Amino acid sequence: MQLRARTAVILGSAACALALSGCGSSAVVLGPLAQAADVTAHAGGAHMQLSARVEAGGNGISMNGSGYFNYSSREGTFTVQVSGPSAAALGSGEMTIQEIFKGSKLYLSSPLLTGKLPNGATWMSVDLARAAKAEGLDPTQLLGGQSNPAQFLEYLKASGASVAKVGTNRIRGVPTTHYTATINLQKAAGALAGGNAGEAEKAISKLGLGSMPVDVWVDSHNLVRRMQMTLHAPIFGQNLQMVMDIEMFGFGSVPTVTPPPASETFEATSSALSGLDSQ
Asked: Hey, which of 87, 214, 240, 276 would disulfide with 56, CB 3.0 to 4.6 Å?
C-alpha cells in the first residue's frame, strides 16, 4: 500500500507538471493550436469527460470521470471511477475519487481514505503551487491556469514542437480538425522554471520523463474539443505507461466551487513532498 501511495505522489507531480500553464504570449506561432489555446482559455469554463489507462509491471487501472472547470477563477470539480486489478487489490473492484480544485489547492476524497486520515478527516489537500516550487518549477505558472487543460498547449510552444494536421473528426457531433505533435519535456521545463531552468529540468528528469506525444482536436470556433496524451516513465524500475483522453464541451458559465471545511481536511503537502524526496 505504501508503494502504491508513493507512486501516486509521483504521478500526481507529473500530472501537475503537465497541467502547468505557460502564461506568456502567443508570439511563437503554432498556427491554429496557438490560437485555439488562447480562445479556449478565454471561454469562461467547460465541462469535461476524462478516460485514462495506467499500466505498470503487468498491472493496470482504468479511470473514467467527469466534471467542470472555471478558467478565470481556476476552480472546478471532478469525480473519477477507478477500476482494475490494482483497485481490486485495495478491497474493491471499483473505487470513487472526488477531486476539487480551488486556486492552487487540490482536495481529494475517497472511501479508500476513510478512517486513515488524522483527526477523522475525510478530505486530503495538496498545495500544487508549493509542490511545483519544491520541484524547481515556477508556481506563478501553475497558478496561471493549472485548471485549464487547454493551456497545456503552451508546452508545444516551449518545446518547439512541430505540429502536423492529421485529418478531421466529429467530437460529440461537432466537426473538428485533428492535429498531432510530440513535446520534448526537457525543453518545455526550462520555459516553466521562472528563471531556474536547471532545477526544472532536473525535476522532469527525476520523474523519468522525456517526450510526450499529444493529439488535439479543434473546432471551427478555435475551441479545443479533445486532447489525448501518452506518457512513458520508469517508476520504481517498472515501465509505466499512461494514456489520457479529455473531451471538453458545454463552454461558458459553470457552477462555483466550495472547498471542504478545514475541520474535515488533512493538509498533506508536507507528507507528499517528503515521499517524493525519499525516492
From this structure: 240
* DSSP strand pairing (164-171 vs 224-235): unpaired
For 168, the grid coordinates are 478531421
Q: Which residue has the cell 524547481?
A: 136
For residue 27, the one-letter residue type is: A
CA distance 151 to 145: 7
CA distances from 228 to 22, 113, 143, 241, 243 (A): 19, 30, 23, 13, 7
131-163 residue pLDDT tens: 666 655 544 444 444 444 545 656 666 666 678
Closest CA to 75 of 57, 40, 99, 100: 100
Residue 58 corresponds to which cell in the numbers above? Answer: 503487468
pLDDT digits (tens, 9 = 90+) for 39-85: 888 888 999 999 988 887 777 888 899 999 888 888 899 998 888 76
Confidence of residue 192 (pLDDT cuts 50, 70, 90): low
The alpha carbon of 109 is separated from its chain's Cα centroid by a whole number of angstroms, namely 17
3-state secondary structure of 95: strand
CA distance between the termini of the chain: 16
Between CA 72 and CA 80, with CA 77 as vertex, the angle to 5 degrees is 140
> What span, in angstroms and rounded, lies between the C-alpha atoms of 25 and 31?
14
Higher pLDDT, residue 169 or 158: 169
Q: Which domains, ranges and CATH numbers included, belong to the chain? A: 2-277 (2.50.20.20)
